[in-house]
Amino acid sequence: MSASSSGQGSLVKGPRWLTAHALAVFAFLYLPIAILILYSFNGQGVGGFPPRDLTLNWYRILFNDGPIWDSVLNSLMVAFAAMLIALVFGIPAALALDRAQFPGKALFRRLVLLPLILPGIITGLSLLMLFRVADVKLSLFTIVLGHGTALISVATTEVFAGLQKLNRAQEEASLDLGATYWQTFWRITVPNLKLSIIGAALLIFTLSMDEIAVSFFLIGRDNTLPLEIWGRLRRGITPEINAISTIIFVFSLIAIVVWYRLRTRAEVTPEIGAELVETADH
Amino acid sequence: MATTSEPAATTSSQPSSASLLSIRSVAKHFGKNVVLRDISLEIAEGEFLTILGESGSGKTTLLRILAGFEQSTSGEVWMSGERLDTEPPYRRRVNTVFQSYALFPHMTVEQNVGYGLSIAKRPAAEIQSRLAEALAKVKMSAYAKSKPSKISGGQQQRIALARALVNRPRLLLLDEPLSALDANLRRQMQVELKALQREVGITFIFVTHDQEEAMVMSDRIALLRSGELEQVASPREIYNRPATSYTAQFIGHTNLLDADVRQGTAICSALKWPTAMPDGAALFSLRPECIRPASTTSATVALPTKSATVRFTAKLRDQAFHGATDLLRVESDGGLILTIRTASRDLPNSEARLEFEFSAADAIPVRATSLASNSEERH
Amino acid sequence: MFSRAYRTAVTVPPLVWVAVFLLVPYLLMFCYSFWSVSDSGTIVHSWNLDNYKELLTKPVYWQTLLRSMWIAARVMFFSMLLGYPLAYFLSFHAGGRKDLYYQLVIIPLWVSYLVRAYAWKTILGTDGVLNTLLQYVHATRHPLDFLLYSPFAVVLTLTHIYTPFTFLPIYASLEHIPRNLVEASHDLGATPQQTFWRVIFPLSIPGVLAGATFAFVLSLGDFLAPLLLGGPSGIMISNIVVSLFGAAYNWPLGASISLCMLAIVIGLLFFSERLEKKWSFS
After folding, report:
1. Among A60, A77, A264, B195, which residue carries the largest CB count within 10 Å?
2. Is some CB atom of chain B closer than 8 A to the CB atom of A173?
3. Is residue B26 scored above 90 in pLDDT?
4. Which residue of B92, B115, B163, B207 to mutate against A (max A Cβ within 10 Å)?
């Protein structure tokens, strides 16, 4: 540690206002979520202070709500398929960026990563035009294509970051010991990138479950969960939405814990943050 | 190459019968950067050859070309009469011990060592027995189930070695495998490695920047400088008969004497000795230990005698204690500074005039090469 | 070390995917922006600049664009105001709790965007949580109606959503500052404050730029928060695009606006990349 003379204790404690500020920001971030959860148990509906008549009634209504669960199922299918697409194309893209040279590589990198920072409306609309011109009927399938395309960027950044930490001599050693490129990929490259790949998969899955801006334009007859919620919000607010949101929140928390456990088993680094810097960089 | 102990490779398509590996006019360019130029080298079956060179000399690149991780820009590599350099790394019967070992962190020691055999789809029983044998050979049987991160650097080194040797390669490449170890362990591993090589009889190509290590272990040393072979010879020969000033300076210490030859006599400052070199400027290498205190006192100074022992007097400038030996720095009459290695003993204080001698045969004529001028006379 | 076959195998599939689902759609959007729509509602494939002329001549478009940028700028400013000190607190003063706090900032990111916007709606509404609370404690007799359906609500909600996004890259860049630089600064007699302004802050600028770009760009393209909370005065440029692609049915005009947004986004990315290069010393 540093010299503790010149008011250096502050390096650890910090000025009091900084602590207060941090507390305030956390309150700001969590207050709406807390209220959301709280009012899912409120018998009098959303709003109205103080909350009264605590009840599980909204959950009961929710569990008998067919369209919601249909949309949940749709979202799960979409998220799974989008995750597969994003991984199947995003992992090779990261490998290509890491180890191949080809004309147009700079453009390729920018294009792949662009959807990460681009407002969803542009991705959604441009794909809508593509499907219109190609005469593809809008359906869950077009949403899968949209999510897959937008989220390749996530797979690519995660895996690319993993590749930077991978000691290439390991792959050389494998080739040296007689494994082909294909065998080396499965036996050395993938196991070494396991954390990045799982992290990317979880992230893609969650982002797809939550995605609305792209889906908004590519939706066919069947709704995803966010679009179902959106449709109901347009009609008015009901604590049923608080209830389903609370359930999603709990599942997200479980996903975070799983993800975090995996990360801590290796090394915890502010990975996403570093990637955001990277991405804005490209 | 100018002075190699073996004849440089010919351009005939058949390598000599004793030769395992034949490197023929291999060059490697990275863009405009020439890393290797025109390397030709024959390596015999069962030989321990060291490629010695400073960082940036191209030694690792040469090794990577042999392993198959780099493609040479021009030239060919043959092994046992078959073209090697067109094969992908995984089809070469060549294995590598990597500088940082490159052990697979997600596999146990056993899985690491068994990797090549399992890739080759050997029967389980054979894998088991060869695995056990390999681990025993490097004294690591007790660690079979450990992960590489749980064992020490020296142990990782042994595992890397076992992982390569268990495949019974024709040729083993070692890329500075000892550089990560501390000095004592390093010396111990040098001996072990050399013994292991004799035992298994596999050809080793060992890359290092450490000339002492090269001297201790090798059958032959190939000294690489700026992408060119400076000299290829046995340690004894390369030390005793360096071909160039660079070799003389890089391997051990030396005094470089910039002499003028006239009618069979080399003259450098106040020193004169007989030589077979033609008239003109010539460079000689004189090892510090070849100069010794004169056996009998004599008044004659720096005169060539019949026994071709050269005597001279010099003032002592510095004395450094090196254990068994002392390194002296003396200034001869005429102002020539020489380094001398003698048995340790107390000498009179500085400014003392002392007499030294060396035998003319120890002054080895060398071609002038140095790092500064790497584009001197080429043929 | 990688063979040509390997490099081809990892390059071609993602390249094809990206070409079909990103490059072609953007080009299509470009084409559409020069087309027009006939009275009978079909797309006329004749090339002209009419759409762009309309954008320049009708104030509603560029006024809305300016308002969107103003909203985005405010979101950027407030998320920075909340995110930077928080990141600094975590990186330099949180001690052993750093990882826990870090996760606490991340968790809201996993709560659905839509759900968070909805939560604010239930808080800010006329009979929402805040108004009923104020009436309950007799702070006000009549509900405050400026809270919801105003640019204020949009800025507040988007700030809530994008603060973690700005936090992440800033935190990452602060974490990358070697601690011995801070110690050296103290050693050379700088106070904590001087150290912050002369060492820490300059080195964190790449993260600040990345975070700012994120907040600005993503807010600029948002259309759901304005629909949900903005009211007539909170309409943003994307809402116009949405209506042009929907009820108003003028895809070409919508495409030309989207393309302008795309150009602004790419220009900003380019600009921030240049700045970042200037400020990164690694």
Report:
1. A77
2. yes
3. yes
4. B115
Question: Cβ contacts (< 8 Å) between C3 and chain B: which residues?
Answer: 88
The domain in which residue B342 lies consists of 254-366
How far apart are the C-alpha atoms of C102 and C104, rounded to whole Å? 5
> How many folded domains does chain B comprise?
2
Give chain B's largest Cα–Cα span. Answer: 81
Among candidate residues B233, B222, B218, the one with its CA nearest the CA of residue B6: B233
pLDDT tens-digit readout, C24-68: 999 999 999 998 888 777 888 888 888 899 888 999 898 999 999
What pLDDT, on a 0 to 100 scale, did the predictor assign at position B42?
Answer: 95
Which of A18, A25, A241 minimises the CB distance to C93? A18
CB contacts, 8 Å: C1 with chain B: 64, 69-70, 89
Dihedral of the alpha carbons of B215, B216, B221, B224, in degrees to the nearest 10: -60
pLDDT band at B323 (very low <50, low <70, confident <90, very high): confident
Residue B339 host element (H or E):
strand B337-343
Q: Residue C233: which CATH number?
A: 1.10.3720.10
Tell whether C12 is covered by a domain: no
Q: Do A169 and B104 lie within an 8 Å CB cutoff?
A: no
Q: Is-contact A86 A148, C-beta < 8 A?
A: yes
A210:C114 CB<8 A:
yes
Q: How far apart are the first and last CA of chain B?
A: 8
Q: Does A106 touch chain B (CB under 8 A)?
A: no
pTM of the model: 0.79
Q: Residue C169: is it exposed, middle or buried by C-beta count within 10 angstroms (0-12/13-18/19+)?
A: buried
**Can you list the pairs that A129-138 forms with residues at least 24 positions away whose Cβ atoms lie under 8 Å?**
A129/C25, A129/C28, A129/C29, A129/C32, A129/C251, A129/C255, A130/C21, A130/C24, A130/C25, A130/C28, A131/A218, A133/C28, A137/A220, A138/A218, A138/A219, A138/A220
**Residue B271 pLDDT more than 70?**
yes
- CATH number (domain holding residue B63): 3.40.50.300
**Claim to verify: residue B183 and residue B272 sit in the same structural domain:** no
C5 to chain B: nearest residue by CA?
B88
The model's confidence at residue B292, banded by pLDDT at 50, 70 and 90, is: confident
**Residues B95 and B196 both lie in one domain:** yes
Chain A residues in contact with B106 (beta carbon < 8 A): 191-192, 194
CB contact under 8 A, C272 and A280: yes
Q: Which domain holds residue A228?
A: 65-281
* Interchain proximity C1–B88, CB inside 8 Å: no
Give how far Cα B279 sits from Cα of A159, B270, B310, B333, Å.
68, 18, 20, 24
Among the partner-chain residues B98, B106, B120, the one whose CB lies closest to the CB of A173 is: B98
Please check whether residue A188 touches B, CB under 8 A: yes
Provide the pLDDT for residue B349.
Answer: 59
Q: What pLDDT was estimated at residue B294?
A: 80
**Interface B:C, Cβ pairs < 8 A:** 5
Secondary structure class of B379 (helix, strand, coil): coil
